[in-house]
Specification:
This protein is of the alpha+beta class. It contains three helices and five strands, in the order ααβββββα.
Length: about 110
């Protein structure tokens, strides 16, 4: 149904006839619509969730760095976290190097 309507709207005009101005801009509008709802909006939501997660991190939380190291937060500074990756092995990482833990995501959705 929708395909047939779009086909009629976007159908090339007969020779000598002018094309409908709305039909000229409809593909551009559809592309913008698709980009917004399938690419831009989910990315905005993901960034918002990441900021919310970063604000909620506290000492003792388990985290994963973007490099793939798993550890537990032992200290929080203004721009860095100190994480313990194994007993008596602590690493200082930048705050933006922490990614959302997939197990945290499943807990948030419950």
């Amino acid at each position: 149904m929708i395909n047939s309507i779009l086909f009629v709207i976007l159908m090339a005009p007969a020779s000598g006839a002018e094309q409908n101005p709305i039909a000229q801009f409809l593909p551009i509008v559809l592309i913008i619509f698709v980009f917004y709802f399938f690419m831009i909006r989910p990315q905005i939501k993901k960034n918002k969730d990441q900021k919310k997660y970063m604000a909620s991190i506290k000492v003792g939380d388990k985290v994963i760095t973007i490099g793939g190291m798993h550890g537990k937060i032992t200290d929080i500074d203004e721009q860095t976290f100190t994480i313990e990756i194994s007993p008596n092995v602590r690493v200082k990482v930048e705050k933006n190097a922490i990614t959302m833990d997939p197990s945290t995501l499943s807990e948030q959705k419950k």
